[in-house]
Amino acid sequence: MYSFSHSKSYLKLKQLALNSERDRIADYFKSDSERFINMSAKANNILIDYSKNKITEPVLKELLLLADESELQKKISLMYSGDHVNCTEDRPALHTALRRELSESLSVAGQDVMHDVSKALAHVEAFCDQVRGGAWLGYNGNRIKNIVNIGIGGSDLGPSMVCQALCEYQTSELDVYFVSNVDALDLNQVLVRLKPEETMFIVSSKSFATQETMLNAHSAKQWFVDNTAYKESYIAKHFVAVTTNITAAQDFGIALENIFEFWDWVGGRYSLWSSTGLPIALSIGFSAFSELLAGARSMDEHFLNTPFSKNLPVLLALIGVWHINFQGSNAHAVIPYNQCLNQLPAFLQQLDMESNGKSVDVEGRHIDYDTAPIVWGQTGANGQHAFFQLLHQGSQNVPVDFIASIKHNIHTASHNKALLTNMFSQAQALMLGCNDAEYSYKVCLGNKSSNMILLDDISPTSIGSLIALYEHKVFTQGVIWNINSFDQWGVELGKALALRMNSAEFEHVEHDASTQALLDLINM
Ligand code: F6P
């Protein structure tokens, strides 16, 4: 039985970490003129340069042996073929099926998954063509001009991030808005700008039970009723649902033909490839949405078929394990330099921290090692004027993923050059540091690790590949840490307490003095 901290490689890696404590990354380049070539890899229009990490060939070799010892190749195949890898919910995790060639077949529990996927995609395509083409008319014959996606977590972050990433591919007159927070301001700031007769609401919720989403959805429906000469039939023209819970969506008043279904074998944070991606397809068109799927598919094939030493998700995962479990880093910064990727850090927070923020292994044993890091970040160059001080002179080593595209669609050479040279310079400064014999407060110790992730361009294909790259990095780390990356039991307690505190029978509950005092303050 595999156990991360009792694996053969674990102890060797601990020793290698001790041996390299005094190493300088900069010296690695002096002793190996081919270091960039040896420690970079390219696939599917993405290059990763991991040479500016405090990592040597022997360390990399041992990390690859660790991957083998965790039976990673077998676990990849099992996940891809629909095995119940989500062991606590006894489910597959088949987000990869959402972007497979539709001609393939994949049977899960006797059901042809690809037939269901094909049907769901056809529903999305037909709806997109009708709305974007003007065939879908509102209750008074107006074209739909605005889309409001109401959802939270995986029902918001992925679609919103991709719409922003591909903002230059928005090919419709449609304006797409995302409402997620239960703070009424989030919804009201959108509604105040819209006319109900030109607006389509997407109520996006896998469970169709999330408190925040349902409250926002009911408030949006009330706004619609209050601002139109309302008839029940109008709802069918202005509200659709994305969910696995068909009954609850119908109870809300959404017509069956306007419910875009997906399935319990798709995790929320992995669902943008499913009907959850409806706002993406409405924004960029179904053809471009298909290119997004194809980009992810190409990364799936790379992940499945490439030797781990050249496998981009595996390399990023192993380097992350080295930082977290052998270099003592508990945080990981994601700093995209493309403005269109400004929502990527928030998306990766859920993908990484909700998947691997676990402390029990797949056997139910409490674990004695660190797992997911604190993932955070912001666009560069902005971060250079916000938190880079800590990265350069702080007391902690925070490994960084720098991300940018070489080609930009907007042709402003001076801006592109400034963007990329800033990013390259920051990675170099983190590695080299600087000395100042006279003033210690000016010294940057350097020796700080970073990955450089360079996309050929920003396109539906490259964005699909980039997201799948991180999905598979997270999966690989979950396998190495021997944890279930596909459940999220930790969020259930907070949800239950909030529902109870928000309910009418709440008064008769004893609370800790703090909570009670706070509730008294708001007179509850
Ligand atoms: O945070 C818990 C969670 O269940 C996420 O996994 C999910 O993406 C989010 O809440 C929203 O859930 P739903 O899509 O069911 O509304």
Characteristics of this structure?
524 residues; alpha/beta; 6-stranded mixed β-sheet; 5-stranded parallel β-sheet; binds 6-O-phosphono-beta-D-fructofuranose
Architecture blueprint of SSEs:
Layout lengths: L7 H12 L5 H7 L3 H4 L1 E4 L2 E4 L7 H13 L2 H9 L26 E2 L2 E2 H21 L12 E5 L6 H9 L9 E5 L4 H8 L7 E6 L6 H16 L5 H7 E5 L2 H7 L6 E3 L16 H7 L1 H20 L6 H15 L4 E6 L7 H13 L17 E3 L11 H6 L6 E6 L7 H20 L17 E6 L4 H21 L11 H10 L11 H9 L3
Helix pairs in contact: 1-4, 4-14, 7-12, 7-15, 12-13, 13-18, 14-18, 15-18
6-O-phosphono-beta-D-fructofuranose binds next to loops.
Could you describe the 3D structure shown?
It is a single chain. With 524 residues, the protein is α/β, with parallel strands linked by helices. 45% of the residues lie in helices and 11% in strands. The chain is built from 20 helices and 13 strands. The strands form three sheets. Strands 1-2-13-12-10-11 form a six-stranded mixed sheet, sandwiched between helices. Strand 12, helix 17 and strand 13 form a beta-alpha-beta unit. Helix 1 runs antiparallel to helix 4, helix 7 packs antiparallel against helix 15 and helix 14 crosses helix 18. It is globular and about 75 Å long. It starts with 7 loop residues before the first helix and ends with a helix. The protein binds 6-O-phosphono-beta-D-fructofuranose (F6P). The site of 6-O-phosphono-beta-D-fructofuranose has 14 residues, from loops. 6-O-phosphono-beta-D-fructofuranose binds next to loops.
